[in-house]
Write a structure and sequence with these properties.
The structure is a homodimer of 247-residue chains. Chain A has 247 residues and is α+β, with helices and mostly antiparallel strands. Helices cover 23% and strands 31% of the residues of chain A. In chain A, strands 1, 2, 3, 4, 5, 6, 7, 8, 9 and 10 form a ten-stranded mixed β-sheet that branches. In chain A, strand 8 and strand 9 (181-188) form a beta hairpin. The interface between A and B is medium-sized, with 24 and 24 residues.
């Protein structure tokens, strides 16, 4: 018996998110089926981040236990032969039998990408949010600074969430611009449900002049989801990286 | 009556190329239908570049004549309301009544994009060609230099083509690398059928060590399609820009 860790990249466009659900096509579901078939065992992966429907990933992680004699490093290649084009195993490797993708200290990097120009760009549409409203990027940068650090982010958590403790630490929240592409890059060891998309939606409202950077303090203090911006659409969000302490 | 020029961007994934064909969905076909409906006239556009099935564009051009009173600049906005997400009008403007997108001197820029890493990347798959074979980019750059300038490119033209004169001038052919992304950027005022994709396929074989940069002279001189590399897959190709002399 060994425990194998997979680094998984995917285009979330055609999936109902990571988490397995009856009658829905999910990343976890496809991985379980493909691994079970490949290894001829019943496999159930345990994932690091349960990304939402339509969200993409360059490097999400999961683990599973297997009796297979196939070397762990070869599993990535065998899987990529069988997986649909929109899911790819970037790396497979053996880990300690008690290694768990959610019970380790880790730093997650999410990126929310915005296209800001007059007309939409078909070639980037699936992985970005488009707006023709001219955004004030300097104000977005300024607002982002207010959100860095440890805060109670209840105002930035979708109301459906059942989590009790809504205090989180954003290690860094950067806004960058490259031509017509604006990226919001959030790093932290854990985010609330929809938190990055709500932050993106809030910074978009700052960029549009509907909110001021200095409003961020009040919004945090209010703990009121209604005060923050809209939840930005899923397609603009990508889980870029998870860095585990031992990496 | 006025002549209107459209700058058109599209994701070619789900289209049988630019040119209208019976029983196939094409960019030209969708533009004709959408314009005819919007302007309530029978509209037939005349395009600049008849890109192949699966090829993308940031800026192809076409023109049409219309009796409409809608200002030419507004047509882009009205069209984008009606077009599917994978086609976008970047700009619309009035041009002289004798302006023709193929009878003007122009400089076209095509880019062929390659992802070169161990495992495929789902998020870029629709717009790039993936290879895990480690490419020698310096050799690709060296080979590209041989192809610049005026040559008879018969060896780089698909055999189905009926064109008589296969002499063309490549203004520049650059190979750039940015992380795992290798771009082949070709500029010229005209290319033969499949020429950029055959050049990309040939440079890929150089990168893999199957051909040497110095073989390029022989391949050109042979005028033999069989001597050049394979036609690289369509999804990696993008018409980036057409610059008309008066622009």
């Amino acid at each position: 018996m060994k425990r194998v860790r997979l680094k998984v990249a995917y285009d979330g466009t055609n999936y109902c998110g990571w988490q397995i659900q009856p009658n829905e096509v999910t990343i976890e579901g496809v991985l379980n089926e493909t691994l079970s078939e490949l290894l001829d065992e019943e496999i159930e992966v345990v994932g690091a981040s349960r990304t939402d429907s339509g969200v993409h990933a360059d490097g999400n992680y999961c683990v599973f236990d297997t009796e297979t004699h196939i070397p762990a490093e070869k599993i990535a290649y065998a899987m990529n032969q069988r997986l649909p084009e929109d899911i790819s195993i970037v790396k497979s490797e053996e880990v300690d039998s008690d290694w768990h993708p959610r019970y380790q200290n880790s730093m997650k990097t999410y990126q929310y990408t915005i296209i800001n120009r007059d007309m939409p760009d078909p070639v980037r549409r699936l992985y970005t949010y488009f707006t023709y409203a001219k955004l004030d990027v300097d104000k977005m940068k300024e607002a982002a600074k207010y959100l860095e650090g440890e805060h109670d982010f209840e105002a930035f958590c979708s109301t459906g969430s059942q989590v009790e403790n809504t205090v989180r630490t954003i290690e860094s929240l950067k806004v960058t611009q490259n031509g017509d592409e604006i990226a919001i890059i959030a790093k932290g060891n854990g985010f609330l449900y929809n938190m990055v998309r709500i932050i993106a939606g809030t910074l978009l409202e700052v960029g549009e002049g509907k909110l001021e950077p200095s409003d961020m303090d009040d919004i945090i203090a209010s703990k009121d989801r209604g005060r923050a911006g809209k939840t930005a659409v899923a397609r603009g969000l990508r889980l870029v990286e998870i860095k585990y302490d031992e990496n």
